[in-house]
Specification:
Helix 3 crosses helix 4, helix 4 crosses helix 5 and helix 6 runs parallel beside helix 8. Strand 8 and strand 9 form a beta hairpin. Strands 1, 2, 3, 4, 5, 6, 7, 8, 9, 10 and 11 form an eleven-stranded mixed sheet that branches. 35% of the residues lie in helices and 21% in strands. With 306 residues, the chain is α/β, with parallel strands linked by helices.
Length: 306
Protein backbone atom coordinates (compact mmCIF):
# COMPACT_ATOMS: atom_id res chain seq x y z
CA UNK A 1 0.00 0.00 0.00
CA UNK A 2 1.35 3.41 -1.01
CA UNK A 3 0.91 6.66 0.90
CA UNK A 4 2.06 10.19 0.02
CA UNK A 5 5.35 9.83 1.87
CA UNK A 6 6.45 7.11 -0.55
CA UNK A 7 7.08 9.81 -3.17
CA UNK A 8 9.20 12.05 -0.94
CA UNK A 9 12.49 11.38 -2.75
CA UNK A 10 11.11 12.20 -6.20
CA UNK A 11 9.31 15.31 -4.97
CA UNK A 12 12.45 16.59 -3.27
CA UNK A 13 14.38 15.98 -6.50
CA UNK A 14 11.85 18.15 -8.33
CA UNK A 15 12.90 20.98 -6.01
CA UNK A 16 16.63 20.34 -5.72
CA UNK A 17 17.39 19.19 -9.26
CA UNK A 18 14.42 19.75 -11.60
CA UNK A 19 16.59 19.32 -14.73
CA UNK A 20 17.15 15.66 -13.83
CA UNK A 21 13.40 15.06 -14.03
CA UNK A 22 13.25 16.26 -17.62
CA UNK A 23 13.92 14.12 -20.68
CA UNK A 24 16.63 14.22 -23.31
CA UNK A 25 16.73 17.82 -24.58
CA UNK A 26 15.47 18.52 -28.11
CA UNK A 27 18.36 20.84 -28.93
CA UNK A 28 17.54 21.17 -32.62
CA UNK A 29 14.08 22.61 -31.86
CA UNK A 30 14.39 24.89 -28.80
CA UNK A 31 10.79 26.16 -28.88
CA UNK A 32 9.50 22.61 -29.01
CA UNK A 33 11.87 21.75 -26.18
CA UNK A 34 10.48 24.66 -24.17
CA UNK A 35 7.03 23.09 -24.36
CA UNK A 36 7.82 19.37 -24.10
CA UNK A 37 10.76 19.55 -21.67
CA UNK A 38 12.56 16.78 -23.55
CA UNK A 39 12.05 13.21 -24.70
CA UNK A 40 11.28 11.16 -21.59
CA UNK A 41 11.52 7.40 -21.01
CA UNK A 42 8.27 5.55 -20.55
CA UNK A 43 6.21 7.87 -22.74
CA UNK A 44 4.27 7.43 -25.97
CA UNK A 45 4.18 10.18 -28.62
CA UNK A 46 1.73 10.25 -31.53
CA UNK A 47 2.62 12.31 -34.61
CA UNK A 48 0.17 12.94 -37.43
CA UNK A 49 -0.06 15.13 -40.51
CA UNK A 50 -1.48 14.92 -44.04
CA UNK A 51 0.38 12.95 -46.68
CA UNK A 52 3.36 14.90 -47.98
CA UNK A 53 3.69 17.29 -45.04
CA UNK A 54 7.11 15.89 -44.12
CA UNK A 55 6.44 13.73 -41.05
CA UNK A 56 9.20 11.24 -41.87
CA UNK A 57 11.62 14.00 -42.88
CA UNK A 58 11.03 15.93 -39.65
CA UNK A 59 11.40 12.79 -37.52
CA UNK A 60 14.57 11.89 -39.40
CA UNK A 61 16.08 15.27 -38.48
CA UNK A 62 14.92 14.98 -34.86
CA UNK A 63 16.32 11.49 -34.35
CA UNK A 64 19.58 12.35 -36.11
CA UNK A 65 20.08 15.30 -33.74
CA UNK A 66 19.26 13.11 -30.74
CA UNK A 67 21.59 10.32 -31.90
CA UNK A 68 24.43 12.85 -32.27
CA UNK A 69 23.75 13.81 -28.65
CA UNK A 70 24.06 10.14 -27.64
CA UNK A 71 20.41 9.02 -27.54
CA UNK A 72 20.24 5.47 -28.87
CA UNK A 73 17.39 5.26 -31.39
CA UNK A 74 15.67 2.44 -33.29
CA UNK A 75 13.81 3.23 -36.53
CA UNK A 76 10.94 1.12 -37.83
CA UNK A 77 10.35 2.56 -41.31
CA UNK A 78 7.46 0.64 -42.84
CA UNK A 79 6.40 3.19 -45.46
CA UNK A 80 9.73 4.05 -47.07
CA UNK A 81 12.73 1.69 -47.44
CA UNK A 82 15.59 2.10 -44.99
CA UNK A 83 18.04 3.15 -47.71
CA UNK A 84 15.77 6.05 -48.68
CA UNK A 85 15.57 7.09 -45.02
CA UNK A 86 19.37 6.99 -44.65
CA UNK A 87 19.62 9.03 -47.87
CA UNK A 88 17.52 11.72 -46.15
CA UNK A 89 19.77 11.59 -43.11
CA UNK A 90 22.89 12.04 -45.22
CA UNK A 91 21.45 15.23 -46.72
CA UNK A 92 20.42 16.48 -43.27
CA UNK A 93 23.84 15.68 -41.83
CA UNK A 94 25.85 17.31 -44.63
CA UNK A 95 23.40 20.13 -45.41
CA UNK A 96 23.54 19.40 -49.15
CA UNK A 97 21.43 17.46 -51.66
CA UNK A 98 22.30 13.78 -51.94
CA UNK A 99 22.37 14.05 -55.73
CA UNK A 100 25.24 16.54 -55.46
CA UNK A 101 27.49 14.19 -53.48
CA UNK A 102 30.16 11.96 -55.00
CA UNK A 103 30.89 8.42 -53.85
CA UNK A 104 33.78 9.53 -51.65
CA UNK A 105 31.60 12.04 -49.81
CA UNK A 106 28.79 9.53 -49.36
CA UNK A 107 31.18 6.88 -48.03
CA UNK A 108 32.82 9.34 -45.61
CA UNK A 109 29.58 10.57 -44.07
CA UNK A 110 27.98 7.14 -44.14
CA UNK A 111 30.85 5.94 -41.97
CA UNK A 112 30.05 8.75 -39.52
CA UNK A 113 26.35 7.83 -39.40
CA UNK A 114 27.36 4.22 -38.86
CA UNK A 115 29.15 5.23 -35.66
CA UNK A 116 26.03 6.83 -34.21
CA UNK A 117 23.70 4.87 -31.87
CA UNK A 118 21.16 4.64 -34.69
CA UNK A 119 19.53 1.33 -35.63
CA UNK A 120 16.96 0.20 -38.22
CA UNK A 121 14.39 -2.58 -38.14
CA UNK A 122 14.74 -5.06 -41.04
CA UNK A 123 11.06 -4.72 -41.97
CA UNK A 124 9.00 -2.93 -44.60
CA UNK A 125 5.24 -2.79 -45.15
CA UNK A 126 2.86 -5.07 -43.27
CA UNK A 127 4.56 -6.60 -40.23
CA UNK A 128 3.13 -8.49 -37.27
CA UNK A 129 3.12 -6.81 -33.88
CA UNK A 130 4.89 -9.83 -32.39
CA UNK A 131 7.82 -9.38 -34.80
CA UNK A 132 7.99 -5.65 -34.09
CA UNK A 133 7.86 -6.13 -30.30
CA UNK A 134 10.53 -8.85 -30.44
CA UNK A 135 12.79 -6.55 -32.47
CA UNK A 136 12.19 -3.66 -30.06
CA UNK A 137 12.92 -5.87 -27.07
CA UNK A 138 16.18 -7.17 -28.60
CA UNK A 139 17.44 -3.66 -29.33
CA UNK A 140 16.55 -2.40 -25.85
CA UNK A 141 18.43 -5.31 -24.27
CA UNK A 142 21.43 -5.44 -26.60
CA UNK A 143 21.85 -1.83 -27.79
CA UNK A 144 20.24 -0.02 -24.85
CA UNK A 145 17.87 1.77 -27.21
CA UNK A 146 16.07 4.70 -25.56
CA UNK A 147 13.83 5.96 -28.39
CA UNK A 148 11.84 3.92 -30.91
CA UNK A 149 10.19 5.35 -34.03
CA UNK A 150 7.42 3.44 -35.81
CA UNK A 151 6.46 5.00 -39.15
CA UNK A 152 3.64 4.30 -39.52
CA UNK A 153 0.77 2.51 -37.76
CA UNK A 154 -1.42 2.00 -40.83
CA UNK A 155 1.42 0.62 -42.94
CA UNK A 156 2.71 -2.01 -40.53
CA UNK A 157 -0.85 -3.19 -39.76
CA UNK A 158 -2.04 -3.15 -43.39
CA UNK A 159 -3.78 -6.26 -44.65
CA UNK A 160 -4.06 -7.83 -41.18
CA UNK A 161 -7.76 -7.07 -40.57
CA UNK A 162 -10.81 -8.49 -42.32
CA UNK A 163 -13.12 -5.50 -41.80
CA UNK A 164 -13.11 -1.87 -40.72
CA UNK A 165 -14.21 -2.94 -37.23
CA UNK A 166 -11.35 -5.43 -37.02
CA UNK A 167 -8.97 -2.73 -38.31
CA UNK A 168 -9.79 -0.38 -35.45
CA UNK A 169 -9.56 -3.18 -32.91
CA UNK A 170 -6.18 -4.13 -34.36
CA UNK A 171 -4.99 -0.54 -34.09
CA UNK A 172 -6.24 -0.26 -30.51
CA UNK A 173 -4.46 -3.48 -29.56
CA UNK A 174 -1.23 -2.31 -31.20
CA UNK A 175 -1.31 1.04 -29.39
CA UNK A 176 -2.06 -0.72 -26.09
CA UNK A 177 0.95 -3.03 -26.56
CA UNK A 178 3.23 -0.14 -27.53
CA UNK A 179 2.04 1.89 -24.55
CA UNK A 180 2.76 -1.06 -22.26
CA UNK A 181 6.20 -1.60 -23.82
CA UNK A 182 7.18 2.04 -23.36
CA UNK A 183 6.11 2.01 -19.71
CA UNK A 184 7.49 -1.39 -18.75
CA UNK A 185 10.81 -1.04 -20.58
CA UNK A 186 11.42 2.63 -19.81
CA UNK A 187 11.82 3.77 -23.42
CA UNK A 188 10.17 6.51 -25.46
CA UNK A 189 8.04 5.26 -28.35
CA UNK A 190 6.96 7.58 -31.17
CA UNK A 191 4.28 6.35 -33.56
CA UNK A 192 3.27 8.07 -36.80
CA UNK A 193 -0.46 7.76 -37.47
CA UNK A 194 -2.19 8.96 -40.61
CA UNK A 195 -5.09 11.39 -40.19
CA UNK A 196 -8.63 10.90 -41.39
CA UNK A 197 -9.50 12.45 -44.74
CA UNK A 198 -10.27 16.11 -44.19
CA UNK A 199 -11.63 18.87 -46.39
CA UNK A 200 -8.89 20.30 -48.65
CA UNK A 201 -7.02 23.03 -46.78
CA UNK A 202 -8.64 22.20 -43.42
CA UNK A 203 -6.37 22.30 -40.39
CA UNK A 204 -5.96 19.15 -38.37
CA UNK A 205 -7.13 18.81 -34.79
CA UNK A 206 -6.57 16.00 -32.32
CA UNK A 207 -9.85 14.52 -33.55
CA UNK A 208 -8.38 14.22 -37.07
CA UNK A 209 -6.23 11.23 -36.10
CA UNK A 210 -7.45 8.12 -37.85
CA UNK A 211 -8.75 5.33 -35.64
CA UNK A 212 -10.48 5.26 -32.29
CA UNK A 213 -10.07 7.68 -29.38
CA UNK A 214 -7.81 5.12 -27.67
CA UNK A 215 -4.84 6.27 -29.78
CA UNK A 216 -4.85 9.77 -28.29
CA UNK A 217 -6.00 8.60 -24.87
CA UNK A 218 -2.97 6.34 -24.53
CA UNK A 219 -0.54 9.00 -25.78
CA UNK A 220 1.47 11.24 -23.49
CA UNK A 221 2.25 13.66 -26.32
CA UNK A 222 0.28 14.39 -29.50
CA UNK A 223 1.90 16.41 -32.29
CA UNK A 224 0.19 17.71 -35.43
CA UNK A 225 2.34 18.65 -38.41
CA UNK A 226 0.39 21.24 -40.39
CA UNK A 227 1.23 22.60 -43.83
CA UNK A 228 -0.70 25.31 -45.61
CA UNK A 229 -1.13 24.50 -49.28
CA UNK A 230 0.66 26.81 -51.76
CA UNK A 231 -1.64 29.64 -52.74
CA UNK A 232 -4.00 29.06 -49.83
CA UNK A 233 -5.20 32.17 -48.03
CA UNK A 234 -4.12 32.86 -44.50
CA UNK A 235 -1.37 34.34 -42.41
CA UNK A 236 1.46 32.62 -40.62
CA UNK A 237 4.09 30.09 -41.67
CA UNK A 238 3.39 27.47 -44.32
CA UNK A 239 4.60 24.71 -41.98
CA UNK A 240 3.76 24.45 -38.30
CA UNK A 241 3.95 21.84 -35.58
CA UNK A 242 1.24 21.93 -32.91
CA UNK A 243 1.60 20.36 -29.48
CA UNK A 244 -2.03 19.53 -28.67
CA UNK A 245 -1.44 17.13 -25.80
CA UNK A 246 1.35 17.14 -23.25
CA UNK A 247 0.68 14.97 -20.24
CA UNK A 248 3.96 15.90 -18.54
CA UNK A 249 3.00 19.44 -17.55
CA UNK A 250 0.18 20.45 -19.88
CA UNK A 251 2.12 23.05 -21.87
CA UNK A 252 0.72 23.34 -25.40
CA UNK A 253 2.10 25.44 -28.22
CA UNK A 254 2.29 26.06 -31.97
CA UNK A 255 5.70 26.45 -33.57
CA UNK A 256 6.23 27.81 -37.07
CA UNK A 257 8.90 26.14 -39.18
CA UNK A 258 10.80 26.86 -42.37
CA UNK A 259 11.87 23.98 -44.63
CA UNK A 260 15.04 23.92 -46.73
CA UNK A 261 14.59 21.57 -49.74
CA UNK A 262 18.36 21.33 -50.34
CA UNK A 263 19.27 20.06 -46.87
CA UNK A 264 15.85 18.54 -46.07
CA UNK A 265 16.00 20.33 -42.72
CA UNK A 266 13.46 22.30 -40.72
CA UNK A 267 14.22 25.45 -38.76
CA UNK A 268 11.93 27.00 -36.18
CA UNK A 269 10.68 30.49 -37.06
CA UNK A 270 8.89 31.33 -33.81
CA UNK A 271 5.78 30.65 -31.83
CA UNK A 272 2.54 31.10 -33.73
CA UNK A 273 -0.06 33.34 -32.14
CA UNK A 274 -3.28 31.60 -31.17
CA UNK A 275 -5.98 34.12 -31.96
CA UNK A 276 -8.94 32.07 -30.82
CA UNK A 277 -9.39 29.40 -28.17
CA UNK A 278 -9.94 26.07 -29.88
CA UNK A 279 -12.23 23.43 -28.47
CA UNK A 280 -10.38 20.16 -28.15
CA UNK A 281 -12.16 16.93 -27.33
CA UNK A 282 -11.00 16.24 -23.78
CA UNK A 283 -12.22 12.65 -23.87
CA UNK A 284 -10.00 11.98 -26.86
CA UNK A 285 -7.07 14.25 -26.14
CA UNK A 286 -7.12 14.55 -22.33
CA UNK A 287 -5.91 18.13 -22.72
CA UNK A 288 -7.19 20.65 -20.21
CA UNK A 289 -4.40 23.12 -19.62
CA UNK A 290 -3.16 25.97 -21.79
CA UNK A 291 -1.95 26.91 -25.22
CA UNK A 292 1.02 29.24 -25.24
CA UNK A 293 0.96 32.26 -27.45
CA UNK A 294 3.41 35.02 -28.06
CA UNK A 295 2.74 38.44 -29.48
CA UNK A 296 5.59 40.00 -31.46
CA UNK A 297 7.87 41.85 -29.06
CA UNK A 298 6.08 40.64 -25.96
CA UNK A 299 6.43 37.93 -23.37
CA UNK A 300 4.51 34.68 -23.65
CA UNK A 301 0.90 34.64 -22.54
CA UNK A 302 -1.56 31.79 -22.23
CA UNK A 303 -5.15 31.16 -23.09
CA UNK A 304 -7.28 28.44 -21.61
CA UNK A 305 -8.32 25.44 -23.63
CA UNK A 306 -12.06 25.21 -23.44
Amino acid sequence: MLKAGAFRERLMTWISDPASMMGRPINGFPLLQEALKGIRPGELTILTGPTGTGKTTWLSQLTLDLAKAGMSTLWGSFEIPNDVLVKKMLSQHTGQPFDGMDTTTVAQHLNYLGELPLYFMPYFGSTSMSAILDCMDAHVREARVEHIILDNLQFFLSGQADSSVDKYRLQDRAIHELRHFATSRGVHVTVVVHPRKEEPGAELTVESISGSAKITQEADVVLLLQRRKPGAKGDGPETRIDVVKNRFDGTLTRVGMKFCPASLKYEETGKVEVTKARKYNKSAANTSDTIERQQPGSVSHTISVL
